[in-house]
Structure formats: C-alpha cells, structure tokens
Amino acid sequence: MSMSSSVDMPATGPGTILAPARPVVPTVGTRRGLALTEMVLTEGFWAVRQQVNRSATFRHCLDWIERAGWLDNFDRVAAGTTGPDRPGWQFSDSEVYKLMEALAWEHGRTGDGEVEAQLLALVDRIGAAQDEDGYLNTCFGHPGRPERWSDLEQGHELYCAGHLMQAAVARARTHGPDRLVEIARRVADNVCETFGPDGRAAVCGHPEIELGLAELGRALSEPRYVEQARLFVDRRGHGVLGPIPLLGPAYFQDDVPVREAEVWRGHAVRALYLAAGAVDVAVDGGDEELLAAVQRQWARTVERRTYLTGGMGAHHQDEGFGEDWELPPDRAYCETCASVASIMVSWRLLLATDEVRYADLIERTLYNMVATSPRADGRAFFYANPLQQRVAGGDVLPDAVNPRAEGGLRAPWFEVSCCPTNVARTLASWQAYSATVDGDVVTLWQHASADLRVALDDGGALGLRVRTGYPEHGRIVIEVVEGPGRPVRLRLRVPSWARGARLQDPDGSVRDVAPGVAVVAGDVRPGDRIVLSLPVEPRLTWPDERIDAVRGCVAVERGPVVLCLESVDLPPGLGTDAVRFDESVQLRAEGDGARVGLVALPVPAEVDGELPFRASSAPAPVGQAVSATLVPYHRWAERGAGTMRVFIPVVGTTGRAGTSPADERVSGADIRDRR
Amino acid sequence: MSMSSSVDMPATGPGTILAPARPVVPTVGTRRGLALTEMVLTEGFWAVRQQVNRSATFRHCLDWIERAGWLDNFDRVAAGTTGPDRPGWQFSDSEVYKLMEALAWEHGRTGDGEVEAQLLALVDRIGAAQDEDGYLNTCFGHPGRPERWSDLEQGHELYCAGHLMQAAVARARTHGPDRLVEIARRVADNVCETFGPDGRAAVCGHPEIELGLAELGRALSEPRYVEQARLFVDRRGHGVLGPIPLLGPAYFQDDVPVREAEVWRGHAVRALYLAAGAVDVAVDGGDEELLAAVQRQWARTVERRTYLTGGMGAHHQDEGFGEDWELPPDRAYCETCASVASIMVSWRLLLATDEVRYADLIERTLYNMVATSPRADGRAFFYANPLQQRVAGGDVLPDAVNPRAEGGLRAPWFEVSCCPTNVARTLASWQAYSATVDGDVVTLWQHASADLRVALDDGGALGLRVRTGYPEHGRIVIEVVEGPGRPVRLRLRVPSWARGARLQDPDGSVRDVAPGVAVVAGDVRPGDRIVLSLPVEPRLTWPDERIDAVRGCVAVERGPVVLCLESVDLPPGLGTDAVRFDESVQLRAEGDGARVGLVALPVPAEVDGELPFRASSAPAPVGQAVSATLVPYHRWAERGAGTMRVFIPVVGTTGRAGTSPADERVSGADIRDRR
After folding, report:
1. Whole-angstrom Cα distance, residue B220 to residue A18?
2. Has residue B395 got a pLDDT over 90?
3. What is the pTM (predicted TM-score) of this model?
4. ipTM of the modeled complex
5. Which fold has domain B44-433?
6. What pLDDT, in 10s, does the model give residues B260-276?
7. What's the topology of domain B435-494+499-533?
8. What is the three-state SS of B294-306?
C-alpha cells in the first residue's frame, strides 16, 4: 500500500490489529467501533493534531503535572510523608490518570517506545502509592489527610478511581494485562467491597466511576464491576448526596434518577460522564428503559441546551447547563471537558442505535470544541469556550498556573487543569470514533485522509484509502484496496448540514444523497473508487427564535466548521461588537473562512452617564460598509488577544421591526469592490 | 398639624429633631441630608414598607439570626467555649450588626421602645464577646478558631467591623454615646492600631471598613478614623491581597487603585461599598481627584453596566459586574445588597455635587430593587433579582435556610443572608435619602406623602405637607405649613423619565418643567400650595443597540416603576417566553400596571433532537393575538411561582430585518375588543 503522507507513520500500522484497541466495547451487540490500529490518519486536520498531541502535549502535561506537585503527591503517599499541606485540588490525581490513558492509547495506536516509557514511569509512581487493600488516592486516607470516603460530595475519590480505570482499560486493550491493569483491578475490588450491595449505599459527587467500572469490567471480563457501575447509576438521583454550599442537588444530578430525567442539568461534565456510564450499563444489561432515558435526555439537551459549536454548559457559576433556550454566547461556559464527555455519550449511543444524529454531533463537537481548546503548538488550552469575547484577553499568565481561563487566550495550565489531559486522550484515540463495523458492513462516520484496514467479523479485512482536503474541501475520494473476497457493504455519513451532497458509486454514476447514511451501491471490492462530494461553501445559520441571547443575529458555517469574526480581521479600532452583518452581500469562501459584508456602527459618543435605555427605539444605525474574513472558530485567538463573535447582529434588527436601512446603505457589490 | 394617615404615627414626629439623625454627614460642605426625624411618611408606597419593616422584618431577621446560631457565636466567645465548629459563614456577625443598624435608625426615627429594647439586647450579647484590646469577631481569634487577621482575603473581619461601626453611627446620631458606641470605638481603635500607618499595610477582601470608619470618625469627631479609612482606600488596587481560588484581583478591586479606575468591576457589593467609602474620604479630605474618579466610574457603570431596574451585577459566578453592555436579563445577578450599596454611593455623590442624576438612579433603584426584594409581608426576600425568569420557581424552602435564591420565589433566609438586613436598614432610614437642605434652600429629591419639618441652618424650620398617590399617580401636592419668617427656596426633582411634567407655582400659574431640578418660583411661605404633575402613563423603553442580550426587545415603564409580564397574567399554558410584543397595540394604564397587546407563538413541536440552528431564518412566527396586564416588577412572584420577563421580544424581529407579519395579524383594536 502506498502512503504519501505528511505525517510520520507509526511502527505499527494497518494490518497490525490489536483488537479491541478502542475505548468502548459493549458486551452486547454486533456493531463495534474501529480499533485504533485499523486506521492511520495520513494527513490533514486530525493527523496534524494527533501529531502535535504526541510531539508536544504529552510532554507539556507531564511537565506541568510534575511542576504542580501532583506526582509528588503519589511519592509522598509511598514514602509515608503525607501531611496537611498537599498541592492541588482533591481531584489532581485524575490528571495523572487521564494523561496515562492518553499515553496508553497513543502507544497502542503507534507502538511509540518513548510514549510507553513515559507511561510506565507514571505507573511506577502511582503504583507505589497504592495501599495494601487496593485503595489509591493522595488526598484522602493517609496521615495528616482526611479519612477515606469522608467527603463523597466533593472529595472526588471515586472520580479519580474511575479515571484510573479508564487508563487501565486503554492499557489492557492495547497491550494486555500488566502492572497498571493490576493496580486498577485492585482499586476496583476495593471500590466494590466498600460500595457494593452489602457496602455503603453511596455515590460520588462527580460521576466517572460508573463508566470506569463498566469499561474495566468489560476489558477484564469481570461482570462484578459492571454490576457495581449499575448500582452507582441507580442509586443516584434520590438525594443520596449531602448538601453543598450554595448549590442544590441538581448540580451533581442527585435530584432525579437517571432513568426518570428528561434533560441534562447541573454541572455539565458530571451530567455527561454519568450519561456515558448509564449507556454502558444499559447496553450490557439490556436495560432498554435506561437507554431510552439517555436518548431522550440527549434529544432535549441537543435541541435546547447546546451551542452551535456543540458546546454544552451555559453557566459559569456551577459549570452547568442553563434552562432550555438559555444559550448566552458571551457567558457560554462550554467547558472543553464537557465536549469530550459529550462525544463519549454520543459515541456510545451511536454504537447502540446506529443513528446518524449522534455522529453529526460528534463531528460538530470535534471541529468546534475539541479542536478549539489546544493552541496550534499543543502547549496552551482553552478551558471555557465562549462564542463571544467582548474584551480582548490579556490576563493569561504565559508560564504559570492560571485560574480557569476567561481571558480570551489559551493558557498553559490551570488551577483546575482537567481540560489539557482530556483533549490529549481524545486526540490520541480519534480513530476510535470515526467508523463502525457490523458484520460485513463498514460505516465511515467521520471523514479524513486515512488508510484503513478493517478486520471483518467473518475473517479477512476491508482496506480503504481515503483522501480528502476535508473540511476545507468537500471532495472525499475512497479507494478500496483490499477485500475479504465476499460481498461487503460500505456506508458513508452525509452530514446533516450537507444539502446538495453527491455520491459517485463504484460504477461511476453520480447521484444526490440526502443527509443521513448513504449506502454505496452494491458490494465494494478492491479497485473500486467512490467519491462523496459535500458542499462546504460558506452558509448562513440562524438561531431558533426561542434563543433570547442571539436574537437578531446570524452565524456563518463552512461544512462542519463554525466561523467567527475576530477583531484582528477588522479595520483598526473597530471591535467585533461594533459591526452589523449585511445580508445583502453575498458570502464567498476565502481560505478556510468566508468573506462577508458588514456595516460598522458609528463611533460611540463619550460616556455621558445616561442609562442605556431610551424612550424611543433608535433607528437602525447606519455606518460605513466594510468587509471582513470570518475564520474558523477553532483557530480564534491564535493571532493574539482580541475580541470575537460567532453570532453577528443583522443590520436592521434593533428592537423595532422593519427598520432596515437598506436604502441608505452602500450596496453589497460596492462593499466588495471598494476593498 | 392634621395627619390623615393610614400609618401609625411614631411617638416622636416632626418637631422632635435629633439632628444629625442620618447616615451620611460629611464634615465639609453646607448641603446636608434630611434627618430621619424631619420627615414622617404619612401613607403610600414607602410608608407601608417602612411599617412592614418594623412590624415584621425586624423580628423575622432576629428570629432567623438566632435560629441560625449567629448570636450564639457571640455567646460562645463570651463564655470562652469557641471551637472548630461554628455555624455560619465568616461574615455572619455582620448580619447582627446590620440588623442593629436598622433597629437604631428605626428607634431614632420613631422612638419605638420595643425596637430599642431589641437593639439593647443585641448590644449586650455582642458586647460580651469583645476582647480586652477591643477586637470583636466570632470567627477568628479565639480558641479553636483561626488566628486574628489570618485570612484577610476571605475572612471578612474588617468587613464585619465596618458594619458594627455603621450600627454605632446610627446609635450615636439618634441617641448619643452609649455602650454600642463605645464598643465600636474600641473596635476602631484596635483596627487603627493594627492597620495604621505604623501597622500592617493591608486591606480587607471585602470593603466596608472604609465607610464604617469614615462615618464613625465623623460621628465621634475622631479624624484618626477617617484617616484610617483613607489609608484603606489608597492601599487597595496595588495587588495587596493574595490570590483566591479561580478569581483574579478584580474580584475585590485589588487590580487598579480607586483613583485610577474607569469603571466598577468585580464583585458588585464590594465595588460599591468601596466607592461609598472613597467618596466619604474624598469629601472630608478635599480630594477632588478621588471624587472625580468615583464620579467617572459611576457614569460609565450606569451607562454600560446597569440594568433598567437600577440593578448592578451581571454574573453569578463572582456576584460581579460584567463587561460593558453585558446585561443578560435571565442571569442578571442584581444582588439586593448591591442596590443598597448603589444608593449609598449615589447619595454621597448627590450630597457632594447636587447633581440630579444621582437622585434619578436612587429612585429607580428604590422602586425596582429595594422594593422588589421583600415580600409584601416582610418575611421573605429576593437575593438575586433577574429580569427574566425562564422556569417557574419551586425550589424555595419556605421555612428553612435556602441557597442564594434563584428559584423565582422569595426565601425567608439564605446561607448567605446579607440581603434581608440590608433591606431593613435601608427602609428604616428611607427619609434620609429623600431631601437635602443647603442654607435656606430645601430640595425634595424623592416624592412621597409626608409631613416635613426641616430645620434650617439659620434657625427656624420649613414645614411641608406633601400628599400624592405617587408613583401610581403623578400629581404631587405640596402645602407649606411653616416658615422661618424669611425667604426660603424650594426645589423639586423632575425625574429624567418625566417628559411633559408641569409645575403649578404658589401664584397658581402652571408651566412646563423639564427633567432635572425645578425651582419653585419665588420664595415659599406658609399657605403656599405647589403642585407638581408628573406623567406616569405607561411608556415603552428601548434598550441601547449595544446590549446584545435584549436585542429586539422592549420594556414598559410607568413613572419610576419598571413593569414586567408574569405568566400568571397570560392564558393558561402560555409562558412569558412564548409571546411577542405587538407595538401596534396602544398601551393603556391598568391599575398600577399596563395593558399591552401580545402575539402568542404557536405551541412548539415535540422535541426532535435537532440543534436549534437553521439554514434559513424562520419567518416571524404568527400566532394568536392576546393581551395581558404587565405589573410592577417589584411585585413579581407575589402570586406564586411563575415565569416573568421585563424585556419582551417585539413581533417581527427574529433575526432578519423587515419580516414583520403585521399584515397577517389580527389588528390591535381587535385584540383589545376580543378580551
């Protein structure tokens, strides 16, 4: 197989299948996700990010975790020198574990020896801190520290244990049993003993143990762990957790049982990790009621509590969901970790149902949330991902621990630094979320230049060579390079936004395909060539009438990519809040962005101290026509501090209908010509 | 003097002047506020609230403070039985002090013996907890508790001391020296010794000590205290406080020195208490730069960071100001305490400058914030005051300590219960903010039915009898019932919203008066009758184009009162987010509210799980015409849980200009007739 790639190929590649080297492996159902080794990204959007993740982010996270003292915490437990002072929050152990998970996936996907060495060094240090009975936590349970399980509401002990289990699952599925897997097994046994049917009927303030146990149970064929996960899921929602200051039980989803809830609410990452664990438990247990509950919650949350970027979480106060239709762009919290968790839930639902809408949300979230957090160099991250930045950020400390970044600049590390390692583990396992196999049917849910060799259940493999400039370009060429010698079907996702997509079947005929799943005509066999053409011209996107916060505004998208206006792309002195969108100017593609027509508001008067409310509606302001290039939201703030908007107010909607100043404006054609 | 009043008259009334029985007494300048005893509210809006405050709220607060254990905290210090467990936050002492201040003003204004007995009982208990050297705090500095001044960032020790001083000022100015005054003096001496020029160069994380010291210094003629206040004001803003988790130094205004700041930012109550103290210091010290700085901050904050209700604070996370133009109605924090603090600042600036705009903001804040917090029975309160309630509140515990209420229902008490006592002290001293005297010129800044006997600087008094149904009715009749026998001038505030106001001078002639200060023609003398007519018909109010969060919306006001739409006033099943405002329907007054035309949106479809963003802008929805009565915002949620909006989207502004469905709608006349 010829590979003209801009990315170094891993030591192991297509053909070296270490199934099931992937994150989610239900014990029920025939549909499975791709093993990481079944697909090699050869170039393009995700290949570049996966490479930066390996070459920069792992070391970056490792250095900061060390610098922050979060690894020393394990050493002190091992040495018996714990005490009242301990650097980091209660949950800092979990950052080590998420990085370990990232390293395990990366090594499993690529066989990179340096990555494995980093992983094993971490295993040594955390392993030395494990207690005789399996308990492992650096914040609780040792001299000078609070007692074990003494603060289930906010202590995060089970949360940390869950992340350790996910790391061990990655290792077990890419390498097999080893010390990390044994450590996690002992932790899991300790958890089951402590919180099992005969133990303490409690849950953790932050869900995560549920999916950690379920996946570890699957990986180690230990149904006890899955059963313990089920217990945790079912206990929750009955007010089993105690009160916490200033926030009610919805904060940690202890207000309503999972199977009864209508929508996600409270702390977004908590809600989403819990939902992911609930799907695992529901699928393995054949619990259709529980599965339907999560699907129902997904549907309402997506319809009413999800941003255009796929981001979730509208409140800073509790890092949580707002009410239905409450989607402020400026105060969008949209925590990066919530987007990782959202993908975890949607992927599980996709595996369970084969419904394309879950892949649609995954794509939106990948391009506009997961890709937005890391800086291009992989050494700084967004924690919150607002859709409007009112004031240029400047408060980020470039070489220090930052508060949760709200300053419009990516930061190298945070007081609560959950996001960098969450991005790292997601990028390292990107392939796992891209395709499914079910018998002799292979479905490509995400599109990227890649070489695939997909093992088929009945033996043999389907080899595909995908080449595309997606998402900037919409043409996706798929060549079949290997087949099992029997009929195999290939399905391709046509994204929900792709109106006017066309598919060229192996016989050369071209047809329109609607958003959804397009089935390639007939069986595919080596030598076949399939071309999917997706329309990625810039397009306008209008918010639902019920979203108060962006009433009168429009956004621009290109393919799966949300665009935004940055102040750096406006004439000097003009902020992104001082322009209005001119619908009469035709959009046109420019690079991976779009050129749009705008009207600049007049320069505001000096401060006069009058309240900003008037007895009459101002006529729609008429200003100078300007044009600007919107750029992908995932690249915003890469060129320094500035202001930004995804949704731009449309000329003429100032609170009074029908006052469009179109007649007084320079025409759209003039705007373009004047530049 | 005949008094036909619906309110019981106090034992002391006009004529028993205990000047300077008022909160703010600068040592520089001839303009002074009214002593509490110079005005008796005889009936109407504020008279009722002042009565409820006395008859219900004082006892309510006292009971809850006792029940919460915040008074026991003092007893334990006195008994030497303090320990690690202590009910309440670090700042719970301050609630006792604010209630004491309220009781002191109330007793000073009315001579009510029961109120004084309540006060003195509290003085006994807090006094017993004072240390030998004057230090007084129940959270710090005693066995089992953290060391004194060991957590200036979050410990609130100086904050509590400041509130104690304000209580003592109220007592000193209404009664004279006594035990409470002595307690505060010893606290102040201890503070000056600890933090004076030769002491620790630090400040408190929560400003309040500044204005407490300044006013106590004024009351006791002790310039050392004012000087100490100046030190605290000047130290701040240089990064003198240490870091706190997740929030930067702007949270407690330690980012920029007061005299350099352009706008208020960070925690709203902190910013406003600091500004009030800064005005005190600036005025007494002749520090024009500092005074100008606060005026500048006031102007920009009012213009860009203040809600229609006068509310301040747009963020829940830090209870703080947002950026310029960031005024979300649903997440408006608008803490009740911030409104009290805002009045404190504006009143000080009014005394310093005689500028009417400060009185305008005070009126707006009184009617729409201070009056909104307490339930009509004075036994439940709003903490946050949003301008939109999306989901009917139902989570408030009617007889328990609540988290900060966000549930759309007033709560009897909160974990952080700063607001009830802050309302209590403000209502008890309402008169002090209503008028000024400067030589022989008396200015009425707030209008209410009242009997006044204002002592004039050169001897004698001006007696006025004011009768009005304001704010529901705009006619204010003023009879002069006493004069000093020499020329006296009377000035009346014409509110900024009062376009078309008319004034009838003593000679019977009537003239138009513009918003601002109207001077009654000629001198006033006994027997004169003046009538000010303010237009209080319902009017539309439009937000500034730059406020993103209410783009396309309009509000309705009547006089100083902001109105709102409550779901209880809509047909069953119709929420306040499901209607649009129909501008073509003429507003008309109804009771103290307004009848308006609306269009009900069609009932939304079932949840389909589609993202709420579309490829085309929906046409403006056309629905059934309904009409509804908007009610004063200060009364919202009095009729049970429901949804609410102050700003209502206008028909036809759905994100695309000029799509008004007017032609398809039922006409406004039809709407009215059909009801």
Report:
1. 83
2. no
3. 0.93
4. 0.91
5. Glycosyltransferase (1.50.10)
6. 999 999 999 999 999 99
7. Immunoglobulin-like (2.60.40)
8. HHHHHHHHHHHCE
